[in-house]
Design a protein that fits this description.
Elements lengths: L4 H4 L2 H6 L2 E8 L2 E8 L2 H6 L3 H7 L10 H12 L7 E4 L6 H8 L3 E6 L2 H14 L2 H4 L2 E5 L12 E7 L8 H11 E11 L3 H12 L3 E11 L2 E11 L4
Helix pairs in contact: 5-6
Length: 234
């Protein structure tokens, strides 16, 4: 049985954010996800000084269509039992939850502490007791990562390839966190910058295979590109 995910949110989070729960689905799979009702209000609250210091927007507060596509791929696969999985930029945690439901041991990571709290609550609300013993959470910013959290069988990320300035840091983080012969799965909605990232990954030595995953999101049929990245066996 799962637990009440709203109850796992701290009083501070419930005071600072207007929280909403939505049921989302991809294929035959469904999840109950807590998110911020109106993330635009968070954007409006960012001062010019805060943006100039870090250019950080609260992207974590939205449930992105690409996370549904990645979650579907992870649930439909049958190869994750007891595998070590790292989710980069976990946001609300959907992709990591799907990996845990497929039997993986998942480390959810994000540079935003608020994101980690929402991911923790969503994991509690969607995973059974056994799956919850296989997950952990860690604050991690790939732009400044000097000490990788370990070597993993799979690194995953949904909609994290939107800023070309970050490409070298993200590719370095993925490479340093993969076991020899392992791979990463990254999903994005088919933007031009996603193709730029794939070209950067190829120049960095990764081999890539891509596929389009159809999903229904907010009443519309959409698709996302899920890319598999592999480095040569070390």
């Amino acid at each position: 049985m799962t637990v009440s995910s709203t109850a796992t949110l701290s009083r501070d989070i419930r005071t600072r954010f207007d929280v909403v729960r939505r049921t989302v689905h991809a294929g035959s799979f469904r999840w109950s996800i807590l998110s911020v009702r109106d993330s635009n209000r968070l954007v409006d609250a960012i001062t010019p000084e805060q943006f100039a210091a870090d250019e950080r927007f609260p992207y974590w507060a939205d449930l992105w269509a690409s996370s549904l596509a990645l979650a579907r791929v992870l649930r439909e696969g049958n190869h994750l039992a007891d595998k070590m999985v790292l989710e980069l930029g976990c946001g609300l945690g959907l992709a990591g939850i799907a990996a845990a439901q497929a039997g993986a041991r998942v480390l959810f990571s994000d540079c935003e502490q608020d994101a980690l709290e929402f991911a923790r609550a969503n994991a509690a609300g969607n995973l059974d007791r056994r799956a919850r013993t296989r997950i952990s959470f860690r604050a991690l910013d790939w732009r400044t990562m000097t000490d990788p959290p370990g070597r993993f069988d799979l690194v995953i990320g949904a909609d994290i390839t939107y800023d070309r300035v970050d490409f070298p840091y993200l590719l370095s983080a993925i490479g340093s966190c993969l076991k020899s012969g392992a791979h990463a799965l990254l999903a994005e909605p088919g933007r031009m910058i996603g193709e730029e990232f794939r070209r950067a990954a190829a120049r960095a030595g990764f081999t890539l295979t891509c596929r389009s995953i159809p999903i229904e999101y907010e009443g519309r049929e959409r698709s996302s590109v899920v890319s598999e990245l592999r480095l040569p066996v070390r």
